[in-house]
Design brief:
single chain, mainly alpha, Transferase(Phosphotransferase), domain 1, two-stranded antiparallel sheet, 6 helices, 2 strands, globular
Length: 138
């Protein structure tokens, strides 16, 4: 249930922006290490928005990463995810725009890798896979 576009509840129609919303939830899961819904703690979008107000990305990022990420890259991923999960579908980006932003985030992470960080090749594989997706007929 935590992946479903809020507008779908009102219209009963799935759209490309519904897919963008669901992808935003997945990005938040990857960034935070948390499931979409935690009973007693609400939905991941609300939880992340509360943490973002602190201005400290380490409160948002998955603690198991132990700070092993480029801070700017993590902020970019979280920002992209939050834009993808806008309540109003018309305020969400296209998947092409999301992929472009993720590639920028990946470049930041790869620059950190070049300076001795951990590998980002698996993230590169995910971005490449996502960038091959296009709208499907419904």
């Amino acid at each position: 249930m935590g992946y479903i576009d809020p507008e779908y509840y009102h219209t009963g129609r799935l759209t490309e922006s519904s897919n963008v919303y669901s992808f935003g939830i997945i990005l938040l899961e990857v960034a935070t290490g948390e499931p979409p819904i935690l009973h007693g703690h609400g939905h991941i979008v609300q939880r992340v928005k509360q943490k973002v107000t602190s201005g400290n990305i380490s409160l948002v990022a998955d603690a198991q990463l132990r700070g092993s990420y480029d801070v700017s890259s993590m902020w970019k991923v979280v920002d992209i995810a939050l834009v993808c999960t806008a309540d109003v579908a018309s305020q969400r980006p296209t998947m092409a725009a999301v992929v472009a932003q993720l590639k920028e985030s990946l470049a930041l992470e790869e620059a950190r890798e070049d300076m001795g960080g951990v590998t980002a090749s698996s993230m590169s594989d995910v971005v490449d896979m996502v960038s091959t997706f296009g709208p499907s007929a419904r």
